[in-house]
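Quick one:
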Amino acid sequence: MAIKRNGCEGCTDITCVSTQQVLSQDIAKNVRTAYDRVKARGMSACLFGSGGTCCRNCNMGPCQIIDGVEDMLGICGATADTVAARNFARVVAAGSAAHTDHAREMVKGFLDAAKGHGPHQIKDVPKLKRLAEVFGIVTEDREVKDIAVELGEKALAEFGKQDDAPLSMLKRATPKRQAIWKKLGIAPRGIDREVVEMMHRTHMGVDQEYENIMLQASRCALADGWGSSMLSTELTDIMFGTPVPRRAIVDLGVLKADQVNITVHGHEPLLAEALCIAAQDPEMLELAKKQGAKGINLAGVCCTGNEILMRRGIPVAGGFVQQEMVIATGAVEAMVVDVQCVMQSVAEVAKSFHTDIITTNYRAKMPGGIHIQFEEHEAINSAKQILTHAIKNYKKRGKCFIPQETKMDVVVGFSHETINTMLGGRFRASYRPLNDNIINGKIRGVAAIVGCDNFKLADDTHETIVKELLKNNILVLATGCAATSLGKAGLLNPEAARFCGDSLREVCEAVGMPPVLHMGSCVDNSRILIAATEMVRQGGLGDDITDLPAIGTAPLWMSEKSVAIGQYFVASGAQVVFQDLPVTGAKNFNKYLLEGIMGTLGAHWNVAKEPLEIARIMIEKIEAKRDALGINKKKERVLFDMDMRRDLGGGGLKDVGCHGPSAS
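Output:
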């Protein structure tokens, strides 16, 4: 039975042109997507669930709590504030656990590569040595293999550490931030330990004070941001290569009519990297030709897509909300998935086409999918088995529709190391030029746009927010599906400087950089923590992250991982803005997150519904930080004679507004 849609011809509430085009085709008439399910529900979300005051943590309930009503406490007497805090903390724990399980696999993969097992190798030796020093590993006069094995073993030990010594990566934070964590008792210990303790403390009858619950939520989130996620990002860079800027393309038009199209969807790059290597094997290419195809075309979906995009230039077909549309083109032989953010509906959509959904991780199987376990110790053989299955589907392909005019050029691969050379060049690589341009006001501040897509909200939300920020001369860092969305909107290339205010445009055009920097997948938000810390270390912008004219947002958050990310940013001193939080049913706890936690951590959560309101809050917070730093004051222009110039010495030029050709 055909799905009846309003428009898309008719998807009048969908702004993505390629999505509209695919859903308007006859081949997609029987496809039921998340957009259809949202419309069909015909009911508002549960007020107790949305407000965070539904408690299911024991079998006396579920209890639906109404704040301030004596007879509507939990059966155990739990208040709305306690219940909402427990629920919020459990979201943080779940999000942290997802990043942690991902990171553990990457650390194990790194250790295998260090020992010479499998197809991967140590590609970034300087970064290996820098990270080894963080762990107290001697690097001088030692073989790369020995350094890497010791680093891998010490990194793996961080997950199960049982003593009370803080995680090794915490020493990368500013001294002031480390002192705050120590004073509050929230410096994370073993990564897994913090998730377990969070779940224990939110069990019935344990921690019942919302401020105390949130201390552990912060420690749990920090174990993610400064522990598992940071380990995953850094070791992945060392193993697969630290990203550098490269051009690529995004959107559904990256699929090819005359090639075998295989999309890789999920989050763990070990699978995607193996597929990239195997897809170049002559045996696989010959098999594709025998099936009548001209080649093998790999394309990414969601965060795995971002991983191979920034390291290999492999195109991204779509983010989270487009995963069904990728299949609905009819042009995909197989969607290969691992873990996280894979909707069960893709298997149902695939029934209308020749496409197979191939699950590859024992943690994540799906009714209607074909399971081919990816064995990391036999990575290339596993990848070839997956590719062989997909290639043989090519002859089964029927009618397909691939939107062509919507695909967009992007520049990606801005690691935190890249920022060192982005403005200053290799000759004077540092964050100094970035700081100087913030101090002199050419760049007003930095905004991070991270997180998911969400079917409940307009899919041009990211674009609306970012264009407003750029207009106000704010440099934007982007990760995850937010980055993919901004790429589709044409904001991840140097030409996007036309959307900037005069001074930011001047900086971008001088060095040929995009005003929105793609920094990777959702696990790579740890790059932003490192970048922010380096800005502090360079001087002139305070002595902690909380002083920086910087702020983050995950305006279309969907996954629990986004809340964990938000909490580790707040616990690191950076304010964040979301469209909603599941805490509104508990007024004291809600106020604590939006205001009170500022006194503890030096940052707090913000909430705003409309995209332009989110942008306004971000701009106001950045300007307030500039005021507090005293850099919004206009400096008197002084004409220096030769004697005054000599008195400046070698390092004084930056103090009088001379920043070299990159900032002129």
